């Protein structure tokens, strides 16, 4: 089971133990879940409500989307006797991204206000988690944030991806989201309470990220792997499509600015990771997201 950590215990006698649990989550799993993380249940309930209402308004569009068309074509070919394989270039997902400066859905009317409030809370939580990582890695407080912002000269990238994985008639032929590691820094996921599907690859086996009501799942991306010089490896994960249930997931990505220079924090001379500009890494990542990460590091080193 993915570790579940009570974040409120950082405040009391169990701070050292909680820090150790977070270090273990980062080192051994690349994923952990936080409960009592300080984001109010009342806000989280509102987030669920507005995101579900927003999806209801998009549902018809999903039925006409390219994943649905691709799967229908495949099933047609199968019904004509062709041996078919799982789709390799399709995700069974409805998605849009919220950033500070892009267009947001205007419906339902309280979507924007609620998601602004949520993003503010989750951004603060990301920065707290990054400071704990600084401490656990023996770095000065604020090191990772500084690395992500060019020493405070730039803004970190902060995006929130609102996804739904609608019921899929043939989960054997398409994944909700194909296996990948995340490109960036720290990812904070508010996943569905009921409908599972997210899995991580641990010691060669796919392990479920069990839904825990109102928890926030934390995982680390490729840039934390570089900064930590390979101590905190980004973990492969995927979302399985399911026949029943429409899985909601809201993933917030705290990433370096595109202009930030990323390099291992300690002993760079002895490191197997290069130093590069994050924007260059993203240029490689968009083309190779669903492939192994090592060639991405090689490609960006050669740029
Ligand atoms: O929806 C999820 O649970 C995971 C999302 C994810 O892995 C991603 O967007 O990179």
Automatic annotation (TrEMBL):
It comes from the Eukaryota. GO terms for biological process: ethylene biosynthetic process; fruit ripening. Residues 156-256 form the Fe2OG dioxygenase domain. Its EC number is 1.14.17.4. Pfam families: 2OG-FeII_Oxy, DIOX_N. Keywords: Ethylene biosynthesis, Fruit ripening, Iron, Metal-binding, Oxidoreductase, Vitamin C. The keyword Metal-binding applies. It catalyses: 1-aminocyclopropane-1-carboxylate + L-ascorbate + O2 = ethene + L-dehydroascorbate + hydrogen cyanide + CO2 + 2 H2O. Pathway: Alkene biosynthesis; ethylene biosynthesis via S-adenosyl-L-methionine; ethylene from S-adenosyl-L-methionine: step 2/2. GO terms for molecular function: 1-aminocyclopropane-1-carboxylate oxidase activity; L-ascorbic acid binding; metal ion binding. Its cofactor is Fe cation. Belongs to the iron/ascorbate-dependent oxidoreductase family. This is 1-aminocyclopropane-1-carboxylate oxidase. It comes from Zingiber officinale (Ginger).
């Amino acid at each position: 089971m993915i570790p579940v950590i009570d974040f409120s215990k950082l405040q009391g006698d169990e701070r050292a133990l909680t820090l150790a649990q977070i270090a273990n989550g980062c080192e051994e799993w690349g994923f952990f879940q936080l409960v009592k993380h300080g984001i109010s249940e009342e806000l989280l309930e509102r987030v669920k409500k507005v995101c579900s209402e927003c999806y209801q308004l998009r549902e018809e569009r999903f039925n006409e989307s390219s994943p649905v068309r691709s799967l229908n074509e495949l099933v047609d070919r199968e019904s004509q006797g062709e041996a078919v394989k799982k789709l390799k270039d399709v995700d069974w997902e409805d998605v849009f991204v919220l950033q500070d400066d892009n267009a947001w859905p205007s419906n339902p009317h309280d979507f924007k206000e609620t998601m602004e409030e949520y993003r503010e809370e989750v951004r603060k939580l990301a920065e707290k988690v990054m400071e704990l990582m600084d401490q656990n890695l023996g770095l000065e407080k604020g090191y990772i944030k500084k690395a992500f912002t060019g020493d405070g000269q730039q803004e970190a990238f902060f995006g929130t991806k609102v996804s739904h994985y609608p019921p899929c008639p043939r989960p054997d032929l398409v994944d909700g989201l194909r296996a990948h590691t995340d490109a960036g820094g720290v990812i904070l996921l508010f996943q569905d309470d009921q409908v599972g599907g997210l899995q991580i690859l641990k010691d060669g086996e796919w392990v479920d990220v069990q839904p825990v009501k109102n928890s926030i799942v934390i995982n680390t991306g490729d840039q934390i792997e570089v900064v930590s010089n390979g101590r905190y490896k980004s973990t492969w994960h995927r979302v399985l499509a399911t026949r029943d249930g429409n899985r909601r997931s809201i993933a917030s990505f705290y990433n370096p600015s595109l202009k930030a220079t990323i390099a291992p924090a300690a002993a760079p001379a002895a490191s197997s990771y290069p130093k590069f500009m994050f924007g260059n890494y993203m240029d490689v990542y968009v083309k190779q997201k669903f492939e192994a990460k090592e060639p991405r590091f090689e490609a960006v080193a050669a740029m």
